[in-house]
Amino acid sequence: MNALYETAVAASKQAPQVVIFTAPWCGPCKMVKPALVALKAEYGLDLTELNVEDFSPEDLQTLGVRNVPNVRVVHNTVVKAQFVGARTRAQVEDWLTVHGVIARGLSFE
User: Fold this and answer.
1) Mean pLDDT score across all residues of the chain
2) Residue 75 per-residue DSSP state
3) Superfamily holding 3-98
4) Cα–Cα distance for residue pair 11/34, rounded to 1 Å
5) pLDDT at residue 108 tops 60
6) Catalytic residues
7) Spatial separation of the C-alpha atoms in residues 71 and 85, rounded to whole Å
8) Band of the pLDDT at 104, cuts 50, 70, 90?
9) Distances in Å between the alpha carbon of 57 and those of 38, 60, 71?
């Protein structure tokens, strides 16, 4: 198995981890990845990007990765939620909020 993935899964015992499986040739990945990077900068979420080309077909099958982008929330070593395909930044932010990765508070400014 991929060492970066194993590191993210191990870290999920401490805090939820967001994992994105991507590919250099993937158009939708080029839409979702910048949204996740921006949300990481804004909220400080733990994000791991994994290139599917670094995995064997058997490992991808075991992990259930059939399409990219595949975005997952891993918590306590278990995949708690995932989506596949393109989403806007707002959709990704809402998804992360629903699944408890980020908390959007009220601003009183």
Assistant:
1) 93
2) E
3) Glutaredoxin (3.40.30.10)
4) 23
5) no
6) 26, 29
7) 8
8) confident
9) 30, 5, 18
